[in-house]
Amino acid sequence: MNIDGTITVPAEPYEFTFNPETCALLIIDMQRDFLEPGGFGEMLGNDVSQLRSTIEPNKKLLAAWRARGWSVIHTREGHRPDLGCLPPAKKIRGRSPTSIGDHGPMGRILVRGEEGHDIIQELYPKFGEAVIDKPGKGAFYATDLHAILMNRGIKQLVVTGVTTEVCVNTTVREANDRGYDCLVPSDCCGSYYPEFHEMGLKMIKAQGGIFGWVSDSTTLLAALE
Ligand code: C5J
């Protein structure tokens, strides 16, 4: 910890300094629908086991954040049971025989309140941690995330979750445009496609950190000690 209470983490394209009082851990969509067989991810033809390596590093980071009493926010991608917030274009995308709102092994796919929509047990939110239900890929679109962050005085975000190139990337871009600094620990994010994970991270840190910073959980946790 620095003398002024801030913490500096080795990162790319250069070190990331944050004030823990005004920095939240934002965990994106670590839901059964994306990480377990029978959900939305598998319905799209993906191998969900690809994402499971993100669970342990997220668990460690979440435990460290909680132990220090710092802000934690979770998000879930999904739709109202009446599908009123599901754009028709999203419903039919992929031409899959089963789509969002249809019944699957974990209940209706990507529908709020269903088993598959829930956050995995390993990272289950605790009382007091905000859970943002989002209909889109970005966590700011059609949610009260920005209001919550502003009301809590949050200016910086550590963003983790799945998938790197879709919801994590979209959220980091949205956050960047709203003036937040984002640090992304690489091993706490994952993709069904390793090459998309790699490129997704490269896009964030390119051009002097055009959208944010990239580090890893071991480096971040070491900086907290
Ligand atoms: C996707 C997400 N990939 N959480 N959602 O559809 O990244």
How far apart lie the N and C ends? 8 Å
| Nearest-integer average pLDDT | 97
Shape: globular
Q: How much β-strand is present in the residues?
A: 15-25%
- Evaluate the radius of gyration: 17 Å
Helix content: 25-40%
Account of the 3D structure:
By secondary structure, the protein is α/β, with parallel strands linked by helices. 32% of the residues lie in helices and 20% in strands. The protein is built from eight helices and eleven strands. The protein has helices at 32-35, 40-43, 55-67, 88-92, 145-151, 164-177, 194-209, 217-224, and strands at residues 7-9, 16-18, 23-28, 72-77, 103-104, 107-108, 130-134, 156-162, 181-185, 189-190, 213-215. Strands 3, 4, 7, 8, 9, 10 and 11 form a seven-stranded parallel sheet that branches. A two-stranded antiparallel ribbon has the order 1-2. It has a two-stranded antiparallel ribbon with strand order 5-6. Helix 6 (164-177) links the parallel strand 8 and strand 9. Helix 3 runs parallel beside helix 8 and helix 6 runs parallel beside helix 7 (194-209). It is globular, with a radius of gyration of 17 Å. The N and C termini lie close together (8 Å). The model has no long low-confidence stretch (mean pLDDT 97). The structure holds dicarbonimidic diamide. The site of dicarbonimidic diamide has 8 residues, from helix 6.
